[in-house]
Amino acid sequence: MSFRFLCVMLTLTLALLSSAGCSDRLDLESAATPLALGIDLDPNNKFHFYSISPVFSKSIPKKSIENSGIARSLRQSRAEQDAQTGGAVSGRNFQVILVGKRILQQPDWFKIMDVIFRDSRNTTTDRMIAVDGPVAELIHSPPPDEPLIPILLRTMVNTNSGRGETVSTTIQELHRQMYDKGITPSIAEVQLHKTKIKMQGTVLLDKRGRYAHTLGQQDSVLLNILKGKAKAGVSLTFPVPNQPKTGPFDTDTVSFSAEKIDTKIKPSFKNSKFHFDIRIKITAALSERLFPYDMMRHTKELEKTVSKQTQHQFQELIREFQKHRIDPIGLGMYARAYEFKAFEQVKDHWSEELSRSDIHVTAVVQISSMGPVK
Question: What keywords are annotated for this sequence in UniProt (predicted)?
């Protein structure tokens, strides 16, 4: 081959390589990239969708564009979103998916999320969040001087779940919880209070995805401890019996910060019934005491009192689960692992079986430090 021919071929090759991937490029200014998806029902049970997309322009003072409309399905809503924006809508960058309470009251609502999983290019790490109130109010009332709502909500979920005060459930994890017969789903919940978005706690769903119960922040911490997902640093506050209260203040309470948490669950099947023995050991540092108490002389007595109060709250929480016939802890997974044959016979109605099971909790709190204040 001549040198001239090699130069021509090399030039053509470089031209082809430099143009690869550019034929279907999409300029940022020509794209709509929604970071949040919201779904809700109106009083007439019409399906509404909502989305929030950031604005990439210095000439536009508003940070985001909010779109909404009525559709028959999420896939059909894509065309409606395209009609409301100046660019092609890409649904592969959702940070959060907001679900209204009216949606959660419908059985098997999760089927409408099918389009999220059909396209393998979609992300499945979107945080699932229940909205206590109309989704439209939250979407169209962005808090002033705050980050974009999708970024704010995802940060809130990540931060609060790190403290155990809610759960961080991705859509992929929700898919697993919906179809795993040994657990019922749970997702974070937020509420718009005037112009502020507030983290409420955790929403518990039944096996068909319907709303069952809401946990506050402290009960959410207890749930995460039961699930073995609570990290060191979670905080708990309990009233101590026989301690005086001063005026309008709850001066009979004590708070502690967990330094180490050990949760063990032992299932068994006896007398045609499942039994669960849950043992929880918490090593904690005293973080607040609002009543006079001689800690140096009566540390053991306070440990016994706090352990009793902690155990009582765990037991009350589990009674709520049994009352609503839900299993957010995932005790069914323990039953399946240790008592497979017995679980196989009741797996299709596990929540009902759990409601009549014997569940006993033993909680022990050891105070490792009391702080520098006497």
Answer: Germination, Lipoprotein, Membrane, Palmitate, Signal
